[in-house]
Amino acid sequence: MKMPDPFVTRQRLYDREIWWRDRQPFLQSKGYMLRPRFRPNWVPSWLTSGKHPYRSEDGILLPMASHLIDATRLSDGKMVYIKRINAGNREASIATSLYDESLRNDPTNHTVPILEVFSDPDTAGLSYMVMPFLRFPEDPPFETVSEVVDFVDQILEGLVFMHDQGVAHRDCCMGNIMMDASEMYPDGFHPVNMDDTLEDGFIRARVRPRSQVSIKYYFIDYGISSVFAPGQPRGLVTGTDGRDQDVPELSDIAPYDPFAVDVFLIGNLLRKAFLEKYHNTEFLRLLVLRATHPVPSSRPNARELLELWTVERGRISFLSKAWRLQGRNEFAVETAARDCVSMVRTMASYAWSFARWK
């Protein structure tokens, strides 16, 4: 059987790509430029460059999530995500309200920034929501204990902020938390081949250690969130939607407290992402046990959970924070070797920081 010729197949845009290509001039008029593949009159670069389509930036297909596309903001060159939504979309409404001008400068606000929402000029009821281009927190992987501590700090303070505004996320698992990694990648990165450079898509991008830069984590996707007026009594909800189905009280029949669900979800996230994977994250155990109590009324609320964390994090020594994360599945020899490398890197990092400070 003859294999498809990529020099031919990669020249053909898929339906999801054609849809965005046809809107490229409009998006450009709003200040956003799509990559060359998604512009009108695109001519494949490999026809003249001699490169293989699989090694050409404009041979990189749009991912399967057809309602999303990356773009570059023309005013400053920043990479953004444009999301196609229905006008009046509930998720957009909640996210926009949490990123209101009166709230966006609050350092404890970890709601994904909504940069702009605008309507499609040709299709009634269709809008676009623009957000910064973010990465998943575990890409690249966490390396040191201090990075985990910073993550927990931000997620818990963000949960308190969200609950104070009367919003229960109800799906705040790791898949709905993202990070702004722009400082980790000073030269940028490709939106699809995310370990590589933006311009080429195949050359490895320069990356700085997470512990040496400022990272901010954000909650995204308010599609099943519940909203209550701040300061007003909070009702119960029903429903079994959500990525994490470990929450014991989820039910389509028996009402439950959505804010207690959020606390469980964060505790379960910390258990799966860190406590079960690394030896030296035992400082999370009490937090996880309290947050994932099977009886919702026995769990702390978000603020109490943050207060408990403040006490627990105060017990973590400076040296422990600087140490690398030790995988629970490592062999003893492997652990010793990696610890030696980690020690050298840590000392070099602090020496560099001290020299720069002087």
Question: Could you name the key traits of this structure?
Answer:
globular, two-stranded antiparallel sheet, alpha+beta, 3 domains, 358 residues, Transferase(Phosphotransferase), domain 1, five-stranded antiparallel β-sheet
Q: What is this structure's SSE topology?
A:
Blueprint: H1 6-9, H2 15-29, E1 32-33, H3 46-49, E2 68-73, E3 79-86, H4 90-98, E4 116-119, E5 126-132, H5 145-164, E6 167-168, E7 177-180, E8 216-219, E9 226-227, E10 237-239, E11 251-256, H6 258-275, H7 285-291, H8 302-313, H9 318-322, H10 332-357
Antiparallel strand pairs: 1-2, 2-3, 3-5, 4-5, 6-9, 7-8, 10-11
Helix pairs in contact: 5-6, 5-8, 6-7, 7-8
Total count of domains: 3
CATH architecture of the largest domain: Orthogonal Bundle
- Can you give the mean pLDDT? 88
| Major beta sheet summary | 5 strands, antiparallel
Report strand %.
5-15%
Could you give me the name of the CATH homologous superfamily of the largest domain? Transferase(Phosphotransferase) domain 1
CATH class of the largest domain: Mainly Alpha
Query: What is the overall shape?
Result: globular
CATH topology of the largest domain: Transferase(Phosphotransferase), domain 1
Low-confidence stretches: none
Number of helices: 10
Q: What is the rounded distance between the termini? A: 67 Å
Structural overview:
Helix content is 34%, strand content 13%. By secondary structure, it is α+β, with helices and mostly antiparallel strands. The chain folds into 3 domains: 6-132, no CATH class; 145-322, Transferase(Phosphotransferase), domain 1; 332-358. The longest helix is centred in the last third of the chain and has 26 residues, at 332-357.
